């Protein structure tokens, strides 16, 4: 059955099937090949895209902007001081106004409920550029990077995440891996294990897809057999007051060369969504090693975000 995502919002990979995720990855790979060949597209010609940012951004903002322009769309950046989102004006009112002027809306901010409310009332597709609990566009970039190293089918691969096991990156990776039948492993202090309900939901999905979700406190035990080792900053945006506490708690989970070698595989790759705080969650040696694919990931944000926009509002 052919995949048709026209008009669909992209809020979380929980809303997408295995076939739909692979469709987006295949489309991203095709769009990447065309860009590398110097072929500009027109799939978004005549489209106007609103980019709503409550949080600062490098990769997400640049990826959406360049992706829009590559395919002929006009991106309009709206920062937290530019509009009245959730302040002077209700979210649903802002959504209904923007939905009458734009063909698609990207939101990067704090509450998942905010992006969900935008999608409910806008009348046009809304794309989640990051919230406190999810980061689905990043996961597409991660999966495209893994495909480029291990082949198209991701089922059965073992991805190990070291660090804060209940942050937005770990949540999003867990959902994505469960959907595709991958083996997702979290190495984290017990106090930072994933939220119980989401963990059980993902384990149920993984059981049906042929994957698994496991949690370890010992990072060296967790990384055994890893195809990819992933980490993220220890202190997320908005949690700066917890910096010293997090650094002390997560120090044993730093991705070092010894930890990478503990996978027991020569082909294990290192991934990071960036920005990285080197010598905290990852050593400089690992970050700069040939097996580090972090800048492939960063580039792939653009290609996968382009795929999401083309699939949901494109001139097909």
TrEMBL record:
Q: Does the keyword Methyltransferase apply?
A: no
Q: Per the database record, which ranges form the Aspartate/ornithine carbamoyltransferase carbamoyl-P binding domain?
A: 8-148
Task: Name its cellular compartments.
Answer: Cytoplasm
Taxonomically, the superkingdom here is Bacteria
Matching entries from InterPro entries are given as: Asp/Orn_carbamoyltranf_P-bd (IPR006132), Asp/Orn_carbamoylTrfase (IPR006130), Asp/Orn_carbamoylTrfase_sf (IPR036901), Asp_carbamoyltransf_Asp/Orn-bd (IPR006131), Orn/put_carbamltrans (IPR002292), OTCase_ArgI (IPR024904)
GO BP annotations, alphabetical order: citrulline biosynthetic process; L-arginine biosynthetic process via ornithine
Name the Pfam families for this protein. OTCace, OTCace_N
The answer to whether keyword Transport applies is: no
Residue numbers binding carbamoyl phosphate = 57-60, 108, 135-138, 273-274, 301
Gene Ontology cellular component annotations, sorted alphabetically: cytoplasm
Query: Which EC number(s) does UniProt give?
Result: 2.1.3.3
Q: Which UniProt keywords apply?
A: Cytoplasm, Transferase
Which terms in the Gene Ontology molecular function aspect does this entry carry? amino acid binding; ornithine carbamoyltransferase activity
Q: Could you tell me which residue ranges the Aspartate/ornithine carbamoyltransferase Asp/Orn-binding domain spans? A: 155-311
For this protein, what reaction is catalysed? carbamoyl phosphate + L-ornithine = L-citrulline + phosphate + H(+)
| Residues the entry annotates as binding L-ornithine | 168, 232, 236-237
Similarity-based family: Belongs to the aspartate/ornithine carbamoyltransferase superfamily. OTCase family.
Q: List the protein's name.
A: Ornithine carbamoyltransferase
Q: Which organism is it from?
A: Aminivibrio pyruvatiphilus
Q: What lineage, starting at the top, does this entry show? A: Bacteria, Thermotogati, Synergistota, Synergistia, Synergistales
């Amino acid at each position: 059955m052919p995949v048709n995502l026209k008009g669909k919002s992209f809020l979380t990979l929980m809303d997408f099937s295995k076939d739909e995720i692979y469709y987006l990855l295949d489309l991203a790979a095709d769009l990447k090949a065309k860009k590398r060949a110097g072929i500009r597209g027109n799939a978004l010609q005549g489209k106007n895209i609103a980019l709503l940012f409550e949080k600062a951004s490098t990769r997400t903002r640049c990826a959406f902007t360049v992706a829009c322009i590559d395919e002929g769309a006009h991106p309009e950046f709206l920062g937290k001081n530019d509009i009245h989102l959730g302040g002077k004006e209700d979210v649903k009112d802002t959504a209904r106004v923007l939905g009458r002027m734009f063909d698609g809306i990207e939101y990067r901010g704090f509450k998942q409920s905010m992006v969900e409310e935008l999608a409910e009332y806008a009348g046009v597709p809304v794309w989640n550029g990051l919230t406190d609990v999810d980061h689905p566009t990043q996961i597409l970039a991660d999966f495209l990077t893994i495909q480029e190293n291990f082949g198209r089918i991701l089922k059965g691969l073992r991805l190990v995440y070291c660090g804060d096991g209940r942050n937005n990156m770990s949540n999003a990776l867990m959902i994505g891996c469960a959907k595709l039948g991958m083996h997702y492993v979290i190495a984290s202090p017990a106090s930072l294990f994933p939220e119980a309900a989401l963990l059980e939901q993902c384990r149920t999905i993984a059981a049906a897809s042929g994957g698994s979700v496991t949690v370890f406190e010992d990072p060296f035990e967790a990384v055994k057999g890893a195809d990819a080792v992933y980490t993220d900053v220890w202190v997320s945006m908005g949690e700066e007051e917890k910096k010293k506490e997090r650094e002390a708690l997560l120090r044993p989970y730093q991705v070092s060369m010894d930890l990478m070698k503990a996978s027991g595989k020569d082909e294990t790759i290192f991934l990071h969504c960036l920005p990285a705080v080197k010598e905290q969650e990852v050593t400089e040696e690992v970050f700069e090693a040939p097996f580090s694919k972090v800048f492939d990931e960063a580039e792939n944000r653009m290609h996968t975000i382009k795929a999401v926009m083309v699939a949901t509002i494109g001139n097909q």
